[in-house]
Amino acid sequence: MQLTRVPLEDWMRHYYFDTPIDLGSSGVYPYSFAEFKRITGFRDEALDALVFDDSDTMGAVGLRAAIADRWGDGDPDNVMVANGSNDASFLAMVGLLEAGDEVVVLDPIYHTLGSLLVSIGCQVKTVPLLWENQFAPNMDDMLAAIGPRTRMVVVNFPHNPTGVSISRTQQLRLIDACDKVGAYLVWDGAFHDLTFEAHQLPLPFPEYERAIVIGTMSKAYGMPGIRVGWCIGQAAHLAPCMLWKDYTSLYVSPWVEIVAQHAIAHADALCAPRKKEALENFAYLERWLDTQREHIAWTKPQGGVTAFIRFHHIDNTEPFCRSLAETCGVMLVPGTAFNNPKHARLGFAGPSKSFRKGLELLGSHCAASCPTHSPG
Ligand SMILES: Cc1ncc(COP(=O)(O)O)c(C=O)c1O
């Protein structure tokens, strides 16, 4: 398998830890363990009984039951826990696909959902999300791309980095098209609980029996560092995916599983304060972008906590983002990480004070270094 380098992760390795203001991340800002305990009532004694034993390859049954109850069909057998949803998507792809399989996928898309398919040797058909269409997928094109040879369709709604989503009618058409040809539908729902401008869609499993729903603690619940993600789907479809773990992580740490199970039982309480702050930031961002029209355009995200902004007179935002990080201490993610160099990913779920400061610095950096443009 030939792996492609991942520009997003290269960028994060370089800038995430040392840049004081984060305007680039795709999830709400993380909780400390003390905050987690305060919000959820977790007690240290819950860990005292822990034996540092091996865990189940599929994930501890209590954690799987919590995931199945909240996001699945209530059956823990239809859940596989993984080390983050990046791991979960990897397992779904390598477990269910072979070289030569035809796969339909959105472009841009989070790298594991896209370039991994190329590494596996799949025939990849992309459905472009275009700025000119406010990044909305053209459903007719998408459905036309799904044919008798399609083994899997891969989507992520709300979408990273554009925040676009689809309607329930479009979701039903998509399920129907997959069903007609017997294709798996990989539905990355990382931002499911961060839907705000659009209607929250039902997760497509168990409604569609060949759906594989991907989920994570990283984006909506402020716990990226716990590294817990999952696949929800028919046990028989998860079985070949699980086997890959025998060569990689084997299982998720039982310490982590205890904390994650408690977190899921209190997922709403964890999500609410961060979502509220993100929505306040979003309103502020909207007003701020109004003052930046000569430099920046955007399409309003419907969910997730990122906007994929576009700079009128910058063809490749990477040098701009580098100088922004290095001279102003503000991290954006250049659109080169998503095959769209005129754009940049702007995350709006950081702490309000630093978020506003970050926008102020971004504004001054733009004024100092961007050519001006009269909005037409
Ligand atoms: C759409 C999407 N899926 C999956 C992931 C992976 O997240 P994690 O492995 O932290 O669960 C990300 C991270 O940015 C993402 O944006």
Automatic annotation (TrEMBL):
Q: Which domain of life is it from?
A: Bacteria
List keywords of the entry alphabetically.
Lyase, Pyridoxal phosphate
A Gene Ontology MF term for this entry? Answer: lyase activity
Q: Which cofactor does it need?
A: pyridoxal 5'-phosphate
Query: Which Pfam families does UniProt cross-reference here?
Result: Aminotran_1_2
User: EC number(s) in its UniProt entry?
Assistant: 4.2.1.145
Gene3D superfamilies given for it? Aspartate Aminotransferase, domain 1 (3.90.1150.10), Type I PLP-dependent aspartate aminotransferase-like (Major domain) (3.40.640.10)
Aminotransferase class I/classII large domain boundaries: 56-353
* PANTHER family in alphabetical order: AMINOTRANSFERASE FUNCTION, HYPOTHETICAL (EUROFUNG)
> Record's family?
Belongs to the class-II pyridoxal-phosphate-dependent aminotransferase family.
What's the protein called, per UniProt? Capreomycidine synthase
Originating species: Sulfidibacter corallicola
Ranked from the top, the taxonomy reads: Bacteria, Pseudomonadati, Acidobacteriota, Holophagae, Acanthopleuribacterales
